[in-house]
Amino acid sequence: MISKNELKLIKSLKVKKYRVREKRFLVEGAKNVLELIKSTYVTDQILCTQEFYGTNEGYLKNLDTHIVSEKVLEDTGTFKTNSTCLAVARSKEQPIGDIDLTKQIFVLDGVSDPGNLGTIIRTLDWFGFGQLVCSLDSAEFYNPKVINSTMGSFAKVTLCYTDLAKFLSQSNLSIYGAEMNGLNLFDSKIEDPSVIVMGSESHGLSEDVKSMLNFSVSIPRFGDAESLNVATATGIIASYLRMR
Predict the structure, then answer these.
(1) What pLDDT does residue 156 have?
(2) What's the pLDDT tens digit per position in 126-136?
(3) Cβ(162)–Cβ(74) under 8 Å?
(4) 116 contact partners, CB below 8 Å, separation of at least 6
């Protein structure tokens, strides 16, 4: 039986300072937890319902697993309703040296919304792009909203945080920035590999990053919308790169 102190610690991981201090994070929901178990992340604990355990005993029997009620899952995690499971995993250091410069690299410049970051990770995984570089002021990878939005893809994409100006200045790849006034994406011959930089909807690309671009590309607009969501725009560009 899991103790009150253990539950208190798990609850605390909803807050960033405790995630940083404990070097652990929450993973919630059946899809995310099963992907976690299959990944290279270390799983410390799993809380789950009896039904979920019965269905997935083969994955869970060698892990520190506790059978709890749905109410405990909901009180402990961030989901309003949770009839399956949650897990505590150990966070990993992802040095910028882990980025493979022989493969396409997507970069996020100041994308601070956790939901957007999670959706971008999921989208890149869908299109088979396995690495993402984020500026230091982008959303935190281990935020529960990010992890939840990825639907398991958090375990499949290498994500690194770094000083973008330094990273881009040292890159030998062509750097493309998504901007409203860029060349038509579908007329662009984007090199492979190269670096694709996406900015936030509200601020766009930072001036430091703009100064390092080799090319600017734009998704053509046919309607009256003011802008595209950054996760949607990333998906369009990723699809173009795969379909051309």
Answers:
(1) 96
(2) 999 999 999 99
(3) no
(4) 139, 229, 230, 231
208 and 243 Cβ atoms separated by less than 8 Å: no
Instruction: Report d(CA 209, CA 167) in Å as an integer.
Output: 10
Q: State which amino acid sits at residue 225.
A: A
* Mean predicted confidence (pLDDT) in 35-60: 97
For the chain, the straight-line distance linking the first and the last C-alpha, in angstroms and rounded, comes to 55
Print burial letters for 119-147: b (CB count within 10 Å at least 16), e (below 16): bbbbbbbebebbbbbbbeebbbbbbbebb
Query: 66 pLDDT exceeds 90?
Result: yes
Dist CA 169 CA 61 (whole Å): 48
Q: Quick check: 200 and 109 in contact, CB under 8 A?
A: yes
What integer is the mean pLDDT of 134-153? 98
Report the chain's mean pLDDT, rounded to a whole number: 96
Residue whose structure tokens are 């290498």: 158
The token pair at 119 is 């959706």
pLDDT tens for each residue of 27-38: 999 999 999 999
